[in-house]
């Protein structure tokens, strides 16, 4: 059985001991409007277990110093802990080399790093960038900015009414002008799990590198970047039970060595004169200035925590939650689920007839239920389905079937209030 800090997290039947796990998350004891908090906004930002907060506090109180720049005890200790976190992330995503793990401030920063470091160097007039209709704005806007600057074009892979990419249309878009494919692993708005391995293989047949936005995948399923064979993979710490302000860009060493730095400053250099700067080696040439040391160490602790539970068990439990939620919400007359892909992660987006999603979210909050409302930084998805917004419930391994039932009961109350 799996354990976190020596405490069993699975029952005798092999299922997660969710109540035991919930004890690790102080925020879940909160009451909102006099009712127990039901936190179903994990796709926006998940909660942190006590172990991660304790690790952050240990660093701040007994290990804090700047890194890579001194020979005193605290600096050497902080450097060792920071680089140790890098190795934890390397193992977590199965990167071939720890130098392929670049710490960033998050997924958005990581994608912008690639847009600048790869895009500005290798994409020019008449070239094409292929994106899917499922992308978060963070994997659209940087490419639009680059395309405008370079005279390149954006090509978009369409999706069907279930929220799945049309693979044949995708293959048709790949051509000698294609210089990059950017695709989400899991849609933050719909929960669709894209066939990324197949899409990467198709791009590589044409010699095209692929960037994967993994922000919504890494917290919910095993990710093996060598197995996927992606060229770049980006994700954030705050969506996988770690701190805010920290993320990871995985990049194949061959690309990282060819790319130009995104930011200039301290620690990304080997030597500087007014005539010339020699850049540091990978990954440091992409980590200018004082990095988010405490946050990186905290993210390493989050990796330890989820490894202690087991990604397979996490995925199985969240799949059960999603299946139960889908079944129960589908039984509600006047409620429509947006995005019914065959393969989905733990996201349920829905609309209630005659009720604006913001009103749904406000009324659910009165019941202590936290969901997301709006376009979820995925306006093209909303436009594709002809709606301005959805209400989105997104699950984590600390959520329960009873919380799913509370969500369904809350939707019924919304419908009753609006007649």
The dominant shape is globular
How many beta-strand runs? 19
- What is the structural class? alpha/beta
Kindly report the CATH topology of the largest domain. Answer: Aspartate Aminotransferase, domain 2
The main sheet comes to: 7 strands, mixed
CATH H-tier superfamily of the largest domain: Type I PLP-dependent aspartate aminotransferase-like (Major domain)
Through-space gap between termini: 49 Å
Strand order of the largest sheet: 6-12-11-10-9-7-8
Indicate the percent of residues in helices.
Answer: 25-40%
**What Rg, in angstroms, do the CA atoms define?**
22 Å
Give the overall average pLDDT.
95
Count of the separate structural domains: 2
Total of DSSP H or I helical runs spanning 4+ residues: 14
- Percent of residues in β-strands: 15-25%
Report the CATH architecture of the largest domain: 3-Layer(aba) Sandwich
What is the name of the CATH class of the largest domain? Alpha Beta
Low-confidence stretches: none
Q: Secondary-structure blueprint of this entry?
A:
Elements: E1 3-4, E2 7-8, H1 18-22, E3 31-32, E4 35-36, E5 38-39, H2 50-62, H3 73-93, E6 101-104, H4 107-122, E7 128-132, H5 141-150, E8 153-157, H6 167-173, E9 178-184, H7 196-205, E10 210-213, H8 225-228, E11 232-236, E12 247-251, H9 253-258, E13 269-272, E14 277-279, H10 293-309, H11 311-330, E15 335-338, E16 347-352, H12 357-366, E17 369-370, E18 372-374, H13 379-384, E19 390-394, H14 401-417
Parallel strand pairs: 5-17, 7-8, 7-9, 9-10, 10-11
Antiparallel strand pairs: 1-2, 3-4, 6-12, 11-12, 13-14, 15-16, 16-19, 18-19
Helix pairs in contact: 2-10, 3-10, 4-5, 11-14, 12-14
């Amino acid at each position: 059985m799996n354990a976190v800090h020596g405490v069993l997290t699975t029952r005798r039947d092999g299922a997660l001991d969710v109540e035991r796990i919930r004890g690790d998350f102080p925020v879940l004891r909160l009451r909102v409007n006099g009712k127990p908090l039901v936190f179903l906004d994990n796709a926006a930002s998940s909660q942190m277990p006590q172990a991660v907060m304790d690790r952050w506090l240990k660093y701040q109180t007994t290990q804090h110093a700047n890194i890579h720049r001194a020979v005193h005890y605290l600096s050497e200790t902080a450097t060792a802990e920071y680089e140790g976190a890098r190795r934890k992330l390397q193992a977590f995503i199965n990167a071939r080399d720890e130098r392929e793990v670049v710490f960033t401030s998050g997924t958005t920063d990581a994608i912008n790093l690639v847009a600048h470091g790869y895009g500005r160097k290798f994409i020019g007039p008449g070239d094409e960038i292929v994106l899917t209709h499922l992308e978060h704005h963070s994997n659209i806007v940087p490419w639009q900015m680059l395309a405008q600057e370079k005279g390149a074009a954006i090509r978009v892979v369409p999706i069907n009414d279930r929220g799945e990419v049309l693979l044949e249309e995708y293959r048709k878009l790949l051509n000698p002008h294609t210089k990059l494919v950017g695709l989400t692993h899991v849609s933050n708005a719909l929960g669709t799990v894209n066939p990324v391995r197949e899409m990467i293989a198709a791009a590589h047949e044409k010699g095209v590198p692929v960037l994967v936005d993994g922000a919504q995948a890494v917290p919910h399923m095993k990710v093996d970047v060598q197995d996927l064979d992606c060229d770049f993979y980006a994700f954030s710490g705050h969506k996988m039970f770690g701190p805010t302000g920290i993320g990871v860009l995985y990049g194949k060493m061959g690309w990282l060595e060819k790319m130009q730095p995104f930011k200039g400053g301290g620690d990304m250099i080997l030597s500087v004169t007014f005539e010339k700067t020699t850049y540091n080696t990978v990954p440091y040439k992409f980590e200018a200035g004082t990095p988010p040391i405490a946050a990186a160490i905290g993210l390493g602790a989050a990796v330890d925590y989820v490894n202690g539970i087991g990604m397979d068990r996490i995925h199985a439990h969240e799949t059960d939650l999603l299946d139960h939620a889908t079944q129960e919400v589908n039984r509600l007359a006047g409620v429509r689920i947006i995005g019914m892909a065959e393969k989905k992660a733990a996201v349920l987006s829905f609309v209630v007839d005659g009720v604006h999603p913001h009103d749904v979210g406000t009324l659910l909050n009165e019941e202590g239920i936290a969901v997301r409302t709006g376009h979820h930084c995925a306006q093209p998805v909303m436009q594709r389905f002809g709606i301005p917004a959805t209400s989105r419930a997104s699950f984590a391994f600390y959520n329960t079937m009873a919380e799913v039932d509370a969500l369904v009961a809350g939707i019924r109350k919304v419908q009753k209030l609006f007649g």
